[in-house]
Description:
- The protein contains eight helices and six strands, in the order E-E-H-H-H-E-E-E-E-H-H-H-H-H.
- The strands form three sheets. The protein has a two-stranded antiparallel ribbon with strand order 1-2. Strands 3-6 form a two-stranded antiparallel sheet. The chain has a two-stranded antiparallel ribbon with strand order 4-5.
- The chain has helices spanning 22-27, 29-40, 42-50, 92-107, 114-142, 149-159, 162-172, 184-189, and strands spanning 2-5, 11-14, 66-67, 71-72, 75-76, 83-84.
- It folds into three domains: 2-50, no CATH class; 66-142, no CATH class; 149-189, no CATH class.
- By secondary structure, it is mainly alpha-helical.
- The structure holds flavin-adenine dinucleotide.
- Residues 60, 79-81, 87, 90-94, 96 line the site of flavin-adenine dinucleotide.
Amino acid sequence: MAAVPTNDGATLVLAYFPQARFDEVRADVQRAHLDQVRTTAPSLFDRVQAGRRVEALRGTGDQQNFFRQATGPGWALVGDAGHHKDSITARGISDAFSQAESLVRHVGDGLADPARLETALRRYADDRDESLVEGYRATLATAQLETPETRLSLLRAVQSDPELTAIYFDMVAGVEPARALYTPKLLALL
Ligand SMILES: Cc1cc2nc3c(=O)[nH]c(=O)nc-3n(C[C@H](O)[C@H](O)[C@H](O)COP(=O)(O)OP(=O)(O)OC[C@H]3O[C@@H](n4cnc5c(N)ncnc54)[C@H](O)[C@@H]3O)c2cc1C
């Protein structure tokens, strides 16, 4: 569950379910969504009950996870076209921008030189895979929607401290690597 402030003072209340339940959830989406809010985030449920729905609920049951070949002779893929992962960790936009930036940095002014271009595209492809694989693995783990006790303890410790909370969200957004979270302060709280 998450509640995200959006345009015109509205709040996006989003819920994730196992993809295998898509048809069941879609059959009565309003009920499934409210049940999920109530059981997972009761304080948010109270806010939702007091509010007014301003749009129809939207959902997808087709969240794919893949790396495609990033480049070939004279072409390159950036963003979701080349690499897609479950939206649960909300990294797709940042990752698409970082790929575009990396591609431009590698190609530079070498577009007209086939040998330089080939090298640049190969390096872009290698960098893409290397820089995205950690976030990809983390996303696949999160998308399992399992919350073992170790993860709950970690989240409780993070929640108790504003500095750790800020690092945590930077980590989720891909701004910081996972190891940045494991500060002495966090280790003392665990
Ligand atoms: C439910 C959900 C929530 C998400 N939440 C977040 C989030 O909070 N933060 C985050 O960073 N990411 C989030 N993402 C992921 C993010 O939306 C994508 O990773 C990002 O939009 C990818 O950008 P893109 O430009 O590669 O592709 P897209 O945004 O898909 O853009 C591709 C565009 O190309 C157009 N197109 C396709 N084929 C053609 C054609 N033949 N000719 C012309 N145009 C064409 C499409 O219409 C589309 O406009 C979310 C995704 C989903 C599904």
